[in-house]
Amino acid sequence: MLLHNNSIARPVTLAVLAAAVLASAGFCGAAEDGARWVNPLCQPLNVDGDGPFVELADGSLMTIDNQGVRVSQDDGKTWSALQKVCEGLDGLRGGGEPASASIVRTSGGALVIVYLDSTTYNFRWDNATNQPKEDCRLEVWAIRSLDGGKTWIDRQRILEGYNPNFFGFIQTRGGRLVATVPHIVTDPGRYAACSLTSDDDGKTWKRSNLVDLGGHGHHSGAMEPTLAELGDGRLLMLIRTHWGRFWEALSDDGGLSWRTVRPSPLESTSAPGFLLKLRSGRLAFVSNDKAGRTNLLLTFSEDDGKTWTKPVLLARQKDGQLSYPFFLERRPGELWVIAGFAFQKGWQGPVPLRLKVQEEAALREAKSEAKKDS
Known about the structure:
5-stranded antiparallel beta sheet; globular; Neuraminidase; mainly beta; 28 strands
């Protein structure tokens, strides 16, 4: 993942400093005249990078960057020198592809990375048959460290075939690692979702059954899933589709299998979301709405996904997009939201969007808006 240089020269006036921080977080151009609007509820997130981030034992942050990892002692403003991990851990398309790697620090102290190995990337699609060609592939690999990232071991392929962006990698309360990924299947060509699980801190892995919603085409089916553990121990997977809403799947065996599959209450365009279980016990979900990728929303559930609040509009990019989010609860109730794709118009003119929002304030706004509609 490429990091953006947000360093600010000193000395500098407070006004210039404030303007620079706002611009680096994507707050520039907050008017509705074709530029970007950001909810006043949000604060600028002065972080150099777009994630993924994981908190280490001492409270510092680690991020994945260009075949390695870096550590920050100041909440992501500055980063250490690169510690090389392995080839293939550099994202796709020159390193700018979001959601191509994720990292978890386990309860046992291991650091485990699941990633799309860029050295295997070969997207090959037969438009005549609308099927993937035999050599179409982008493999999922895993690697781990038992010494805080100094050395890395047990690098292995955990899923063959073609598997694009993914937004779910967690450790359950019972200690199991679970990653949810999309996987290309054939006859007809489409995506199905599955999970990859490990009970030994990433040393060995198993694959679940496929969640197959049907479809036909290289952007159809069950795409780019995300997941969270519910209060009763079940796992909830939310899946990107082309049918105007996210679908959901439930697992009652820790991600070894998925049995309940149905449309969720959450409307959407064809774009992924990012689901988190917050320390308050609520679920929080960042996504776009059915109008397209211009609006970035935050939605809560206080009953493990049975019902959801009215969405809070975090930001809008008129004529552009704010999509492929990274989502982190940095501290209890302090939510970090970063748009992996943040463009002023279509896929042109990238301007980063990095926001910080307080859980309770956003929830109050969601409930206030719901009262206005009642």
